[in-house]
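stage 2 :: seqdesign
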């Protein structure tokens, strides 16, 4: 009985939105007013686990089936995760997890642990473009596919491209952005990735669409870019800087600087935070090992050191909320197929990840920024937002 009361007492601080906890046949009301959701605990969580990492303790309980949500998972998380500032994290006890090595070998392993789960897995719930980043919903009735096409079109317009230009995509994914750039603008594009699955799929796409004279892809770490002795008219990076680690943000910007021609444009699209934070332990352990979300201000500070002039900064936070809800809907529709690939713990883990991320964007815990820089002064870019 003592353990039960201690756990309930710990949960009582999350009282911003009232909810019900069911444990051992008893109901406990947290907060005042009509409950927004109900949590069923099939097993008690020790207070030491909750205080070491609230995120890990609750996340693992959900993965293991020891914690269930009555009703809609996203709705419950949307109410609960707005209070993440009340979560407990013992960084000293979780030092190895939170502050992993930023060496090349380790980061390659971390990236592959996420992106090399299998193209067949991602095809089940991404759209036809195989875009695994925030879409751009221009219209209320835009499908996920249309939003991803919109996003790439928007980025390419911001880059102010013209025929014959060269474009580097750092962290190119499955290559849709470069394929569109080659088709619509006739640019010569190069993509780099650490994911073998993405590399092989992008290469197939290049061959299938007869774009071998315009596009190339390499398995390469961004730190090796300056060694190529090549420069590009434009550089883009979508959802990649989150993987380089806080100590390497300046190095990442330095590398982009060295391969971008004077006056060239650089678009950086990344998940951001209002303030610097070491990261969430559950996400780091199970989803994005080594991932760290930059603040907008630290990326702008690093950019200034390289004489990158900020031309435009835009927050697309709610677009990512909607993108993630689309992904989670697709994911849930294909759960039976996913169960044939992975165990139940994995299935629950990814459902929790997609729904939780949607909730954190909705609550403003994280943002999505697109920032456009020029390498030094560029007086040829239109004075108004041409895109």
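stage 2 :: out
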């Amino acid at each position: 009985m003592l353990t039960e009361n201690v756990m309930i007492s710990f949960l009582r601080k999350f009282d911003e939105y009232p909810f019900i906890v069911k444990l051992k046949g008893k109901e406990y009301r947290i907060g005042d007013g009509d409950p927004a959701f109900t949590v069923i605990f099939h097993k008690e969580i020790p207070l030491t686990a909750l205080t070491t990492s609230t995120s890990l303790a609750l996340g693992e309980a959900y993965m293991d089936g020891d914690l269930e949500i009555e009703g809609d998972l996203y709705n419950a998380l949307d109410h609960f995760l707005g209070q993440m500032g009340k979560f407990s994290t013992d960084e000293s006890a979780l030092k190895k997890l939170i502050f992993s090595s930023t060496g090349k070998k380790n980061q390659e392993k971390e990236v592959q642990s996420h992106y090399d789960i299998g193209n067949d897995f991602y095809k089940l719930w991404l759209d036809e473009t195989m875009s695994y980043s925030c879409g751009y919903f221009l219209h209320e009735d835009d499908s996920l596919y249309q939003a991803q096409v919109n996003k790439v079109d928007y980025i390419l317009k911001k880059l102010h491209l013209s025929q014959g230009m060269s474009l580097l995509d750092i962290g190119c994914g499955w290559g849709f952005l470069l394929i569109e750039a080659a088709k619509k603008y006739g640019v010569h594009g190069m993509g780099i990735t650490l994911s073998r699955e993405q590399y092989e799929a992008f290469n197939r796409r290049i061959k299938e669409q007869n774009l071998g004279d315009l596009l190339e892809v390499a398995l390469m770490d961004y730190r090796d870019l300056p060694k190529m002795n090549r420069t590009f008219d434009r550089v883009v990076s979508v959802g990649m800087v989150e993987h380089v680690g806080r100590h390497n943000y300046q190095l990442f910007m330095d590398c982009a600087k060295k391969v971008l021609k004077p006056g060239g444009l650089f678009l950086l699209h990344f998940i951001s935070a209002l303030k610097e934070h070491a990261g969430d332990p559950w996400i780091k352990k199970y989803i994005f090992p080594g991932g760290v979300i930059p603040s907008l201000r630290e990326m702008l500070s690093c950019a200034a050191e390289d004489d990158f002039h900020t031309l435009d900064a835009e927050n697309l936070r709610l677009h990512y909320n909607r993108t993630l809800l689309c992904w989670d809907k697709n994911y849930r529709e294909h759960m039976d197929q996913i169960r044939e690939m992975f165990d139940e713990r994995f299935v629950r883990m990814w459902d929790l990840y997609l729904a939780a991320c949607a909730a954190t964007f909705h609550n403003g815990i994280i943002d999505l920024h697109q920032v456009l820089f020029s390498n030094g002064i560029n007086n040829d870019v239109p004075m108004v937002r041409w895109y």
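stage 3 :: structure notes
- The longest strand covers residues 260-272.
- The mean pLDDT is 96.
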